[in-house]
Amino acid sequence: MASELGELPCRHVLTLPTMPAAVRMVRETTEQVLAEWGVNQRHPTVDPALLIIAELVTNSIRHAADISPQLTVLYAASADTFAFGVHDRHPFQPALHRSPTLHAGGGLSTVVELTHGLGGSAVVRPDADRGGKSIWITLPL
Rounded CA gap, 117 and 33, in Å? Predict the structure, then answer.
């Protein structure tokens, strides 16, 4: 992933407290970043990307806030790729797989379904010290 990200010239980093208000702030920042990078808000990837990133931030808030007082969202893009990672310092690394049922309740199964449906990829990357992780999503533009 590091070499792939090195090929994406547009970058942005956002760090926020691991609190419910972060979801709105991340959605707004994502819209702003994409607009600054010339991605039309009506592009078919934008709305699913906003839902995916909101789900990932919500999961960090629900499951990592006690251990990780902050979360960081890293954005990268090129003309044909949009990648973002949500990082927290909770050591648990969730499995990313498709849910066997469509009504499984959202969360990471929704993230994986939307990502794969758009032809993208989703991976969990542990920190070097294994004390945290980033969930990276890469989507075609």
Answer: 23
- Compute the distance between CA of residue 88 and CA of residue 98 in angstroms, rounded to an integer: 22
**Long-range pairs of 93-98 with CB within 8 A, sequence gap ≥ 24:** 93/124, 93/126, 93/133, 94/59, 94/124, 94/135, 96/122, 96/123, 96/124, 96/135
In degrees and rounded to multiples of 5, residue 90 shows phi and psi of -90, 135
The structure's pTM equals 0.90
**Whole-number Cα distances in Å, 69 to 78, 90, 102:** 31, 10, 33
Type of residue at 59: N
pLDDT in tens, 29-70: 999 999 999 999 999 999 999 999 999 999 999 999 999 999
